[in-house]
Amino acid sequence: MTNIPPPAEELRLLDWELRQLEARRTQLLRRRAWLLGVLRAAGPAVPPSHPAGPAAPAPAPPSTQNVLLTLGGVLLTIAAIAFTVVSWGHLGIAGRSAALGVVTLAALAAPALLLRRSLRSTAEAVAGLGLALTVLDSYALRYLALPETATLGYAAGTSMVLAMLWAGYGLLLGELRLPLPTAVATAQLPLILWAGAVDAGEHAMTAALLVTAAFDAALALWATVRSVRVVAAVGGGVFGLWGAAGAGLLSLRATDPTEAARAGVLLLFAALIVLVVAWRAKETRTAAGAAGAGGLLVVAACGGVLRTVLPPEWTVPACLVCGVALLAAVRTALPRPVRIGAAGASAVVQGFAVLWALPVTAVALIGPLGWGTRIWTGAPRDARAALLVEPPLSDPLLAPLVLATVAAVLLMVSGALSRGSASLGSLFGSGAAACPVIHYGAAALVWAAGVALPSALGLPYAAGLGAQMTVAAILLIVAARATSTASALTASALALVSSVSVAFLSLPTEAATLGTLGALTALFPAACAWTARRLPSTPGGAAGGTAPAPHGPGATALTACAALAYATALICAAGAAAGLRPEHIGAAVLAVPALAAFAAARLGPHPAALPVEIMAAAAGGLALTLTVAHAPTLALALALCGLIAAGTALRPDRRPVGYAAVALLLLASWVRLASWEVVTPEAYTLPATVPALLIGLLRRRRDPEVSSWVAYGPGLALTLLPSLAATWGDPHWQRPLLLGVAALTLTLTGARHRLRAPLVLGGTVLALDALHELAPYLVQVAGALPRWLPPALAGLLLLTVGATYEQRLRDARRLRNALGRMH
């Protein structure tokens, strides 16, 4: 933490620093003047004063000269090739040999003379020509003296000889930069060409690739010339990857332990190469990456042999054991990058093993969802048959075994880090940041193993259901007793996922469904209450003097919402088991939003109150959906929902819910009128509308700032909307006329007194009433018009609106502002 001093103190410090700098500058200037005087007295030649710094780099050779020399060398090489290939037959044997020999020797000897005259670029170009001529010499030699020699064999020998000659030439003329990297590039070919020439098998070819990679690795590590190291590194990477991939393919194709062992030896050889690179490399990233690759190659070699000995499904667990064994390198005295690479390789192997095992857990979680279409059709024979899906492994018990093994390794690593292990601390620092992540990963893997275990063991259906319920209960206990927000949220989320799977798993029988939903309905509220009350021992998991803070709202909100969901499901299941009609079940479901509203009121400003209220609204929506087929019960449900919303609106922070309460109560009254088949709703709505308008008028007199929607909206809507609905089904003219007159009066009144509610409601009802009256005539006119006219009119309207879009937008904004200024 940085402490900022007061302005006066900071100004004093700045002035002191400036005085120190000025004094130092004065001292240096005096010393400089004295030195200049000494130099002038010593002689007339005084070197010009200039700032000290690194010497300027030597000027590079002119780019034009380099281009010309390169083009000259290329042209000479092309001419030599043309002479060798085309004009060769016009000379005798002696002439041919003499011509090529003289030109080659001259091209190889000339750079020595040119270097003495400091013509380095010219020497490089001539040396390149000489190297190209040696290739032509080898071609001419085979064409004349060894025509029967196999092509690949001759190419292998020639490439080896040329690489040696060029290397010696480059060492002899050390100032030339071209011969040595060219010799290294040529040295990549002899072994590979030789393996192809003798028709060596795949193992020999792979060994040749790896030996070449080892040669390149040695050059890249110990060569002193940078260009040689670069070429060797590129060649080693290419041939090393090629050889390692070939060895891995041979290991996968092996059908018996002998073949697998031969491929394993090649993989171990590749691992030895990269481990030597990791040991000798200077860059930490390079060393760690090479060590990680070596560890993976060792695991691949061992796993390939074990694959041919063990059953096929045991291959991944065997590789996992090998990967875990790599962690032993962490406790050795190896260099830190090597230990990091070994730990990374072990982590990669364990990660792949987890990915191999997770599909079994996924099937155990998702498989029971199919019972949603087979409710209460009978219990399956065992927990594996209850999944309705075949497990992805022939022996699914291996999946929880693998997951538990990786979880145990993570727990051991986390424990070692928390205890301050020296070997792990040197890799991960203090380990404080890694411990929570490792801990949560281990917990998730233990949960995944527990979910997959019942079906993997093939337990009886009841035992499997109980085991899954136990997993969910344990997770809820962990969430309730957690001392950090992240732990509680993680455990709650896993418990919710498990509970959803268990709920679907219980659907085969009525008793299992009721028992499971009842248990979940009891567990989640208890966990929610306990989690909301518990305080962590230290805030954020760190000791300090601040007061402890409660768990974050995530875990509490999650368990609370799950409790409401399972309570709703339990009521529906109990009602179905009792043979109740859907509308009666829907009326019973309304107990859930009522209890949720009470709980949200008790929570007060707690952040979990809003999710609880959202779940209450969802439960209320489900209740209304179940009662929609029976109008009287629907009216009752709407009224009860309105009362619940009105009770929620009594809270100061939930006043807007009052609008929903009014709307629900109005809907309840309309549905009740419709269920009674009332043809004159005004007889029931007007007696309530008049007092409502009078109450609104009195409130407006007390508080003129009250919105007209609050004062007059409920009373006007209570009569206008049912009358409008009745008008659309009324064949007579009296009601539409009276409703239109009333709506027009309200519209004019709202415009006159600048009241938004009468204006909007009256105008809307008036427009719909007029549309109802004009609809028959509009239909007749539409039938008499040509078929092409409506699309044409629609297109013209769109063009007009598009052309005047900006004006229409301004008009809409003015209308919105005018409405916004009304009460």
Helix content: over 70%
Strand content: under 5%
What distance lies between the first and last C-alpha atoms, to the nearest angstrom?
53 Å
Judged by helices, strands and strand pairing, the structural class is: mainly alpha
Summarize the structure.
With 823 residues, the protein is mostly helical. It has 32 helices and no strands.
Describe this structure as you would to a colleague.
The chain contains 32 helices and no strands. The protein is an all-alpha fold and 823 residues long. Helix 7 packs antiparallel against helix 8, helix 8 packs parallel to helix 10 (257-280) and helix 16 packs antiparallel against helix 17. The chain is elongated and about 125 Å long.
Topology record:
Blueprint: H1 7-42, H2 63-85, H3 93-116, H4 120-144, H5 151-172, H6 179-186, H7 190-197, H8 202-222, H9 226-253, H10 257-280, H11 284-309, H12 315-325, H13 336-366, H14 398-418, H15 422-428, H16 434-457, H17 461-481, H18 485-505, H19 510-533, H20 553-577, H21 582-589, H22 591-603, H23 609-627, H24 631-649, H25 657-675, H26 682-702, H27 708-711, H28 713-727, H29 734-753, H30 756-784, H31 789-803, H32 805-821
Helix pairs in contact: 2-4, 3-4, 4-5, 5-6, 5-7, 6-9, 7-8, 8-9, 8-10, 9-10, 9-11, 10-11, 11-12, 11-13, 12-13, 13-14, 13-16, 14-16, 16-17, 16-18, 17-18, 17-19, 18-19, 18-20, 19-20, 20-21, 20-23, 21-23, 21-24, 22-23, 22-24, 23-24, 24-25, 25-28, 26-28, 28-29, 28-30, 29-30
